Amino acid sequence: MSRYWESICRRCGLCCMEKTIVSDRVIYHMDRPCVHLDTARMSCSIYKSRFTDCSHCRKMTLWKALFAPYLPESCGYVQWAKRLHIRCAPSRVIVYIGDESEQ
Q1: How far apart, in Å, do the first and last CA atoms of the chain sit?
Q2: Which of 15, 17, 18, 41 falls between 20 and 30 A from 55, CA-CA?
Q3: For each of the chain's 103 residues, which pLDDT tens digit applies?
Q4: Which domain covers residue 76, as residue numbers?
Q5: Nearest to residue 68, comparing CAs of 85, 51, 94, 90?
Q6: Is residue 52 part of a domain?
């Protein structure tokens, strides 16, 4: 199950960006990635030990895929849960700031 579960991830790197939740908005700070995120490849430089070596890294669980309101619609886990009609998270407005494409 672990390989399958991890294969759902699209490697977008959004989980590795700093996030702020304000009311019904989730603000992704695109200019503040985790220090271990290789932004050119969107991969973690300490992937195998990320949960022990990085205090900010959190495992994506079934519970989060179903209920975490901070995950964007583009997240592979969100899309997986929606395909199965089991996504129950409240809707939030997603805001990206510091994104180079906005400039």
Answers
A1: 41
A2: 41
A3: 588 998 999 888 888 999 999 988 999 999 999 999 998 888 899 988 999 999 989 899 999 999 998 898 899 999 999 999 999 998 889 999 996 554 4
A4: 2-32+58-102
A5: 90
A6: no
